[in-house]
Amino acid sequence: INRSAEAMTIFSVVQAGLFPIIHMGRPWLAYWVLPIPNQFGSLWVNFNSPLLWDVFAISTYLSVSLVFWWTGLLPDFAMIRDRAVLPFQKKIYSLLSFGWSGRAKDWQRFEEVSLVLAGLATPLVLSVHTIVSFDFATSVIPGWHTTIFPPYFVAGAIFSGFAMVNTLLIIMRKVCHLENYITVQHIELMNIVIMLTGSIVGCAYITELFMAWYSGVEYEQYAFLNRATGPYWWAYWSMMTCNVFSPQFMWFKKLRTSIMFSFFISIVVNIGMWFERFVIIVTSLHRDYLPSSWTMFSPTFVDIGIFIGTIGFFFVLFLLYSRTFPVIAQAEVKSILKSSGEKYKVLRDAGKPLYQISKAKVEVKETVTDDVLMGEVVPSVGDKVGVSDLLSAVGTFDPATQEADDLKKVKGIGPQMEATLNEIGIYTFAQVARMTESEYDLLDSITGSFPGRAQRDDWAGQASILLNNKR
């Protein structure tokens, strides 16, 4: 789920960056908030302003998230490039993949960069939402001037983020038929995070009320009393119901493993987080220090239009992404799918959750031979349907009219693997040369050893060269 979550993050940050630009009134002068040299002499930005901190926070968050997301996409872009039929598509995905060739060096750098970016992005989540909370916490408005805001905003961001990921991926899971990849286990784990962060947010709400009472400041006390019992009581109690009470249903395993209930709760949480922003901003401003300035908030058509427009813009970007980019990290799925399949099967048969894989004892009896010690495992040819499908694609061998080739000349095929291929019915370079990605996958499922090795070593390409040399 990480790829779609990262895409959602990037598209959300784009919308977040749009709001201050739109509210400047003169968006074509948005670059004035950047500390760049200008022709106005001493005109400079106010580095003491939290709004300027927002500029740095949002731009840093967007750039690191974009690089992290794009790095993970490189192997999949290369895969699409290699499978593209139209020259234009091949050219576009070739540019997007940045010349990825699948060499060991590429994978090594990919892992290193991914690790570094993950290490950068994790504390960045904390810093970005802390700085956003400073927009309120550094002011003197009752209800805003509180030190609980930084951790409160971080917990709320994780809370609403997982709820939005749940909302989008449950729909995508059904529409794109990804039930085998986005499993109930993924949804259950996300629900657990929603439950925990919802509890933390609830603690923050209670802490706000307690500190307002404990401070003895009548303005603070009235601000929170007004939230709960004033004209906007309905927004406050909607927020409390959606954000604090509804996630507690996730304590029950039957509910948190229900797809429809998870979708419903994630929608409720999204609504609750919108009410939280409404309560923080509107209820603190509509009644401040001066009763003469008290008024009710009434959104204009511009406010409503901007709000609905950014929601629509977000979904346009997300749908374009899901239409043109791989929504599942296929390179990662291929690297773990077959190697961990037996363990997952044992856990499913035992009725245990899949995240307990490290606790499950899986015994695999295997005869240790010289071939195993040299890096080759004796594969089993038990899938007769797979064998027939494979032979129908690569062709059959007729010993009466054809001569068997020395398949060991192909890099990656040792004596044991050659014997296995012969057992399947593959004897010649011509048969190996006809293999494509689907045949590689079939071969992996039949042999059950070293998934992806045949495709990585390009057996078909090597066999084609050997076949041409033979002729």
What number is the mean pLDDT?
A: 81
Helical segment count? 20
Structural class: mainly alpha
Helical percent range?
A: 55-70%
Question: What is the radius of gyration?
Answer: 29 Å
Strand/helix succession? HHHHHHHHHHHHHHHHHHHH
What would you call the shape? elongated
Instruction: Indicate the proportion of strand residues.
Output: under 5%
Task: Describe the overall structure.
This protein has 471 residues and is an all-alpha fold. It is built from 20 helices and no strands. The protein folds into two domains: 335 residues, no CATH class; 102 residues, no CATH class. Helix 7 crosses helix 8.
Task: Give the structure's gist in a few sentences.
By secondary structure, the chain is mainly alpha-helical. 66% of the residues lie in helices and 0% in strands.
Task: Please write out the topology.
Blueprint: H1 2-22, H2 50-83, H3 87-96, H4 104-137, H5 149-175, H6 184-215, H7 218-229, H8 233-245, H9 253-256, H10 259-286, H11 301-324, H12 330-336, H13 341-350, H14 370-373, H15 384-394, H16 415-424, H17 429-433, H18 437-447, H19 453-456, H20 459-470
Helix pairs in contact: 1-2, 1-5, 1-11, 2-3, 2-4, 4-5, 5-6, 5-10, 6-7, 6-8, 7-8, 8-10, 15-18
Descriptive keywords:
471 residues; mainly alpha; elongated
